[in-house]
Every structure is written in structure tokens, then in C-alpha cells.
Amino acid sequence: MGAGHQHRLYRPGDSVVHRLPPQCKLLAVLAFALVVVATPRERFWAFAAYAVLLGAVAVAARVPVTYLLRRMAIEVPFVLFAFLIPVIGLGERTTVLGLSLSVPGLWAAWNILAKATLGVIASILLAATTEPRVILIGAQRLRLPSLLVQIAMFMLRYMDVIMDEMRRMRVARESRGFEARNFRHVPVIARSAGALFIRSYERGERVHLAMLSRGYTGQMPIIHDLSASVRQWGTALALPAVALAVMGLTW
Description:
Layout (H helix, E strand, L loop, with lengths): L15 H4 L2 H17 L5 H18 L3 H7 L4 H13 L4 E4 L2 E4 H27 L2 H10 L4 H30 L10 H28 L16 H20 L2
Antiparallel strand pairs: 1-2
Helix pairs in contact: 2-6, 2-7, 2-10, 3-6, 3-10, 5-6, 7-8, 8-9
């Protein structure tokens, strides 16, 4: 089931990472994240080694560093939260640049920053080398609940349709001289949201009936075979395997 457009996070390419089946990359990213989370926060060099591994993947996938840095803006709320922890934390205190900071808070902030950053980079690399619809097909190959995968597929397919509908409604309001400026206009926005919900619900009903009339039985057909070879599984799982070996050296 195609989305009809190219996702902004995806970078077309023909690298070895791009060519890996999606189920291999999904499992590799999940296993890598588990290894990172299980690593003790005191093992600084282990986290540095994980960053080097992700850097090697980025080079193999031909994903520029500037691209990764731009997409990492999604992590900003976590960074702000991490910086607040030493300030409001309890326990032993230490002075850093004239500020009294909590020692347990500093460790907690480092733990969040290091592990969240590595997880975000791994997710960005996955999204940059795999189309969203292909990721969902990979999830289906990994035997994730079929209903959840199909819901995600339809959400991906119709998200832009609903956003366009919302944009047209906004243009229609503005063409009639309406401009939301204060709380008195909230009822108008609420009615627009209700109309959008009803339209989306009715569209979903029509799509479902159309699918049933075309033989839908609860399973979406897979047009392209995305089976993975032993070599492809080995290539993808090399990342978490090396990360696991690095973690083992820290114990």
C-alpha cells in the first residue's frame, strides 16, 4: 500500500544499508537500543564506541552529519529536561561553573542524554534509509499484530489527505474574513475540528466498504517479496552484535 508521496525523513539511495530488508533493520535498531539502555551509565568509553558504530553506519548509508544534526532537533525537550535534573535534584551537591548541582542529578542527566541521543540517531538512520510504508511492511514480516500494522498504514496514507482537508477549511474561513485572534474564536475552531472529524470518519467508512467490495478479508496483500537472506540478517545484526560485545567488555 503506497503512501503516494515520499516522506521527508527518507533519503533515496542505493547504499548497502538502503538495500537491507526492513525487518532486518527494525530488529537491528531494536536490539541496539536494548544494548544501549542496558549499558551502565559509568561506562563512558562504551557510549563513545556506540557513537562510532552509528557513525560507521551513517557513512555506509551516505547520510551527512548535517542531516543528522537537523533531525536531532526532536530531542531538544529531552535535553532541556536533562539540564534541569541536576538543578532540582536532591542528594550530594557539587559546584560546576559557580552553580550548585546535584551529583545524582548529573549522573541521571548524563544517562538520559547519552542513551536518548544514541537512540534518536539510530532511529533517524532507520528513517533515512527506509521508506515509512516499507518499515510497516517489515513490521508485518516480524509478525507484529496485523491490525496495528494496518492502522499505521492507513494513518500514514491518509495523514496528508486530512492535513490538506484542514488546510482547505482554514483557507475557506480566511476567505470569509475570519482570523483566529483570541479565545472568543475557539468555538469556531472547535466546530471546524468537529466537521473535520466527521468527514474523516465518513471517508474511513467509504474506504472500508470499497475494500470489502474488492475482497478484503482482514489481511493487506504484500505485492513485493521482502524476504531476507542469512547474509542480510548477518549484515544488519552486526551493529547490535558489536555493541553487545563492547558492553560485555565493560563488565
